[in-house]
Specification:
- This protein is α/β, with parallel strands linked by helices.
- The protein has 25 helices and 24 strands.
- α2 runs parallel beside α8, α4 runs parallel beside α6 and α13 packs parallel to α16.
- The longest helix has 15 residues.
- The radius of gyration is 27 Å and the shape is globular.
């Protein structure tokens, strides 16, 4: 055992340093000790963890006691461990830092699997710490005994290990945290109950704290990104490779083939582009390039801008007609912070159809696996984009700026392409962008529902910018969800976080909810876990106590995590609005396939459930109820649930990738 000095517990008052380290540094009296569990709690704080989500159980009592006692950690007791891992993954996506979840042995540990796999696939940083039975009982006493490392490795976690001796705690925890930060992934560490309780460091009277400081400095993982903070718009351009910058500019300006027209360029925005809104818009305006966003990147750019054509990538499909049309007829995609580039780059057969320029905050965050990039740019995203724009402006592009005359006598800004055959409006859409006519639509842009991009009309529904129009009138007793989400957008504060679930509600929100470039959207993009939104909303609410949190969920999804609504009350969340779209069906199942049976669902009185959990609520069954109910819900302190009654006969739209050349036919 290492003998050092220790004193009474108090916070050092610095969020980015170890409170224990500060105490040890000045301690020189008394005889106290530090357990393994206390060290784990301290190491989590050193690595940037602020909240721990988890379930409780006998094998983690010592660890959770240490977490609850730590002045710089907040314990969030979730009612199911699955939901704890989903909340941790959501918080990691929201902050970009390390988040943590905890579970007991057996089913507690196995319940974490979904959220950890989701975190790994979404490339966010999560550490899961699980308890185990007494170390001498592992592998020969059946109750709640399972090989946790094999389970999590099989789920795709690159790091999963078990501590079988207290001396291994420090290096294994160091390695786990390092892997999470450097690889942008989820990691797992299991610690048996008896090892958590063991004394890791013991102080002797009169011994100073320097020995502990040396140990902690050698073992501590405190990444530079955490020390200095990530700023998408930092002025540091030294990390940007000049050769890659020149290569990207050459491709975009088509300098290698000046006799050819400039390629049709699209800009794809992912969640890792957070903070770079202004730079993205400036580059898009310079290139006359339409912008498509991933679902979890909604809110990063101002969606009322005429160059923003909608969401791409919903449940593995393009999702929206306008976005699909533009992407499928483009030549080159600038992928900015994109976690999954399939819909941006490939045809329906999975083969790459267009060129890519990749922009990511660092090399481990990229989405380039399996895709060929013409240039890869790494560094603060906003800074990279501004430098790229400067390079484009200074390189004097030699592109053809004239129009092309088609056989029918019409003139267009790009040559005729076989890809346009799948959508007759594609050529007109590109003319609209490349000619600069999009500038005439500033600042209010409205597109026809299911319509072609150039067909822009003025809003007839108030000041909210509509990209689509409703073509389905409600039957009595129902309200179209798009009306609700269209009205919701302008009412949201800049600090709002919208947690989206999986289902028809996702499609309605992606169509009608127009965000201004300040809000954040959380969604389980890779797995599409139903019930995710409630867990993500709780994570957002505890991370920023002043934030406006809005959860959008269907009547099927909410019943998978409805028990977590009590956490909003227990944690005293200030603004926690839940919008439930109720149509009595599993809509994506019912309308996504033919001949589906068994997808009808009975539901409780959701408003009554919210009240039972200490909140309040109301029901919307007519368009005239939308504004007053939303206003009441957004102003309410605590949990407020709005049930939107959707006509079950109404199908939410979602398009798939158009047929192309099939090389495997």
């Amino acid at each position: 055992e290492v003998h050092v000095a220790h004193t009474t517990r108090r916070s050092c008052g610095r969020s980015k340093c170890s409170s224990l380290l500060a105490r040890m540094e000045v301690a020189d009296e008394g005889a106290r000790s530090l357990t393994v569990a206390e060290y784990v709690a301290e190491a989590l704080v050193s690595a940037g963890v602020t909240h721990v989500f988890g379930g409780h159980g006998g094998t983690v009592i010592t660890l959770i006691n240490a977490i609850c006692s730590h002045p710089n950690l907040e314990w969030i007791y979730m009612r199911n461990e699955n939901n704890a891992s989903l909340a941790a993954a959501a918080q990691a996506k929201l902050t970009g830092k390390l988040s943590c979840c905890v579970a007991t042995s057996g089913p507690g540990a196995t319940n974490l699997t979904t959220g950890l796999v989701a975190a790994a696939k979404d490339k966010v940083r999560v550490i899961a710490i699980t308890g185990m039975k007494l170390s001498w009982k592992v592998d020969h006493a059946d109750f709640q005994d399972c090989d946790q490392t094999d389970i999590f490795r099989a789920g795709g976690l690159s790091f999963s290990s078990t501590v079988m001796n207290k001396a291994a705690v420090v290096p294994l925890l160091r390695n786990a945290i390092a892997a999470a930060y450097e690889q942008h992934t989820a990691v797992h560490l299991a610690i048996p109950q008896d090892i958590q309780e063991e004394t890791l460091i013991r102080q002797a009277r009169g011994r100073g704290g320097k020995l502990f400081m040396n140990l902690h400095r050698l073992a501590n993982v405190h990444p530079a990104g955490l020390r200095y903070g990530y700023d998408a718009n930092s002025g540091d351009v030294n990390s940007i490779c000049p050769r890659a910058l020149n290569e990207a500019a050459c491709v975009l300006n088509n300098a290698r083939s000046p006799e050819q027209p400039r390629p049709r360029i699209i800009i794809g925005v992912g969640s890792m582009a957070t903070g770079a809104s202004e730079a993205i818009i400036q580059l898009a305006e310079y290139l006359n390039a339409p912008i498509v966003t991933q679902l979890d990147a909604q809110g990063i750019v101002n969606e009322s801008h005429p160059l923003v054509v909608g969401v791409l990538g919903i449940f593995g499909n393009p999702g929206l007609e306008a976005a699909r049309t533009i992407v499928e007829t483009s030549d080159l995609a600038i992928c900015i912070g994109v976690s999954e580039a399939m819909e941006l780059l490939a045809g329906h057969d999975g083969l790459q159809r267009r060129q890519m320029i990749q922009v990511e905050p660092d090399e481990m965050a990229h989405a380039g696996f399996g895709w060929q990039a013409e240039a890869k740019l790494f560094g603060p995203v906003g800074t990279v984009l501004r430098e790229l724009k400067k390079k484009l402006e200074s390189s004097h592009p030699k592109t053809v700026n004239g129009k092309f005359t088609f056989p029918d006598g019409t003139e267009h800004f790009t040559p005729q392409s076989l890809r346009d055959a799948h959508n007759a409006s594609a050529q007109q859409a590109w003319d609209f962008f490349l000619s600069g006519r999009w500038k005439e639509q500033m600042p209010k842009v409205v597109g026809t529902y299911f319509g072609s991009l150039p067909t822009l009309v003025s809003s007839e529904e108030g000041d909210a910018p509509w990209r689509f129009k409703i073509d389905h009138e409600e039957r009595p007793g129902f309200c179209h969800p798009m009306r609700v989400f269209n009205a919701l957008g302008p009412m949201l504060k800049d600090n709002a976080t919208i947690a989206l679930d999986t289902g028809d509600c996702t499609l309605w929100a992606s169509l009608a909810l127009c965000l201004t470039g300040h809000q954040r959207v959380l969604v389980d993009l890779a797995l599409g876990t139903m019930g995710y939104s409630i867990c993500a909303g709780i994570a957002a609410g505890v991370t920023d106590r002043d934030a406006q949190v809005v959860c959008i969920v269907g009547d099927g999804g909410i019943q998978m995590t409805i028990g977590e609504l009590i956490v909003a009350k227990q944690m005293k969340l200030k603004h926690f609005l839940v919008i439930v779209v109720n149509n009595g069906l599993l809509g994506r199942v019912h309308y996504g396939w033919e001949g589906v049976q068994g997808d009808a669902i009975d539901v409780p009185d959701f408003v009554a459930v919210a009240k039972a959990y200490g909140g309040s609520g109301a029901r919307i069954s007519h368009p005239k109820q939308i504004v007053p109910v939303l206003e009441e819900g957004l102003q309410h302190e605590g949990l407020y649930l709005i049930e939107v009654m959707e006509d079950p006969a109404m199908k939410a739209p979602m398009v798939s990738i158009s047929p192309d050349v099939d090389y495997f036919a």
